[in-house]
Specification:
single chain; mainly alpha; 5% strand
Length: 119
């Protein structure tokens, strides 16, 4: 990231308390992560459907998050925790903050496509 872009992103963050860092995750990693999470959702669904795990067990994720009902999500997935640690240096560079990673706090969900008639 060039010094000018870093300054622009840093200023944006200071003014808005958030910033989008395009390219922080390489396309191959993003593609792998998406495929991984789709597979995990399928396994979680199978485990619950076959009653291999309790419907109340959220170890494999949940469809019960009230933010987006009936959408698969997972807190503290180890792949997402690892990704969070890998982008930490970029986040620190852009925000100019010393960020302390808090493990077991990542969150991921697969959004569903909702047509206007489903709203």
């Amino acid at each position: 990231m060039t010094k000018k872009k870093k300054e622009e992103k840093g200023n944006f963050f200071q003014q808005n308390n958030y910033v989008v860092i395009k390219g922080a995750v390489q396309p191959e990693v993003a593609s792998f992560t998406y495929a991984y999470f789709q597979n995990k959702r399928a396994v979680a669904s199978h485990l619950k459907d076959t009653r291999y795990i309790s419907p109340f067990d959220q170890t494999w994720g949940t469809w019960e998050d009230t933010q987006i009902p009936n959408t698969y999500s997972h807190y503290a997935d180890l792949a997402m925790e690892t990704l969070m640690i890998r982008v930490l240096p970029i986040m620190q560079q852009v925000t100019e903050l010393e960020l302390i990673p808090i493990l077991l706090c990542s969150y991921i969900q697969i959004w569903r496509h909702i047509t206007p008639t489903q709203r």
